[in-house]
Amino acid sequence: MAMTTLSDAATDRAATPRVDRLGVVIAILVVVALALPFATFRATRIASGTGLRLFDALPAGTAAAVAAVLVAALVTAVASRRPTFRLALGALALAALALGAGAAGAHLTPADNPYARIAPASGFWVGVFAAAMLVTDAMVRLKLGPVGRLVALAVTAALVVALLASGAWSHLSLIAEYRNRADVFWREAGTHLVLAAGSLAAAVVIGLPLGVLAYRLRKLRDPLINVLNIIQTIPSMALFGILIAPLGWIAANVPGAHAIGIRGIGMAPAFLALFLYSLLPMVANTVVGLNGVSRAVVDAARGMGLTDRQRLIQVEMPLALPVILTGIRIVLVQNIGLATVAALIGGGGFGVFLFQGLGQTATDLILLGALPPVALAFAAAVVLDAVIEISGKGKA
């Protein structure tokens, strides 16, 4: 009888669906999103905004459709553990929020007031965060390989481009800020990429040999790593300021320096600072990667008659490649973010819009400068993570 009771209890526990803890967090975020303002109306670009909840910001039918999708995502997050359902509802919630924001812009923009500004409010952003968590959780549960993650990133990028190109967001103030600065935006985007990718390339060219040298000469390793650690601890603005004086002196006293762009302010100190910040991850990961190569493999290569140079190029560096690529990933993501601060010393980049927006109390201008670096850093992390995983499998 006791055994029967225990068996029945076990059956009851098995039959009772377990609540997903992350799903509960997502559900709470969805409830908060529905309670907060969905859109903000401002009579002018810098006027104080009025927050409007979902059913005030949209026509009743559209608002009901968006709310229904969010509620469905909430229920799925809590009650369903099937990753395909979670992925589908998370993606549908993101689409509903994006289209709802565009519809709010069209619905709220007065026909007789070209200065009015409509922007997504906190409820929209919390909802996007909740839906993105649901999608990310589903992708983790699906255990997508590197190729699958790259395909997902490409599909996401294509959908975002299609959304922007469709004109669905044409009434939102973020797009209005972009339209007013389209030429400048793409010029600063190029500057941002030059700063981030160019300093990375310089760090690879200098950092890899330094890492190999530190690996081979143990007496050099600790002093070099310590110096690079000290540089890494200097705040970015302080380092930019420190570099102004020496670069200004070089520009004034070295023939041809000014002509090639070396100045006390502008891209030169920003580029040099990003390069200096990049050295520690490059050198340290190179040393760690080479140290991680099996001594048995190195001894076998030595026994085959390979010289030190041949062992390094043909055996040690290929086996250390995943760790070295991890250093490159760290540097690129770090530099994409730090390049934003370069605008404060005339270095350009997306930070130009961010700091202009802060000075003008223009939220949408701040977003115009902040969102692209976030998207670039995320995309860079996904791509390089996939490359690292593929290279690691290739060496396994």
The helicity comes to over 70%
* N-to-C span: 55 Å
Could you report the average pLDDT, rounded to the nearest whole number?
86
* Major sheet strand order: 2-1-3
Contiguous uncertain segments of 5+ residues: 12-16
- Let me know the largest β-sheet: 3 strands, antiparallel
- Within CATH, the superfamily of the largest domain carries the name MetI-like
How does this model look, in words?
Belongs to the binding-protein-dependent transport system permease family. Residues 189-389 form the ABC transmembrane type-1 domain. It comes from Pleomorphomonas carboxyditropha. The protein has 396 residues and is mostly helical. The chain folds into two domains: 18-171, no CATH class; 182-395, MetI-like fold, CATH 1.10.3720.10. It is built from 16 helices and three strands. It has helices spanning 2-15, 21-35, 54-57, 60-79, 83-108, 122-142, 146-166, 173-180, 182-216, 218-233, 236-253, 267-291, 295-303, 308-338, 351-360, 363-395; strands spanning 39-42, 50-52, 117-120. It has a three-stranded antiparallel beta sheet with strand order 2-1-3. A hairpin with a 7-residue loop joins strand 1 and strand 2. Helix 2 runs antiparallel to helix 4 (60-79) and helix 13 (295-303) packs antiparallel against helix 14. The protein is flat.
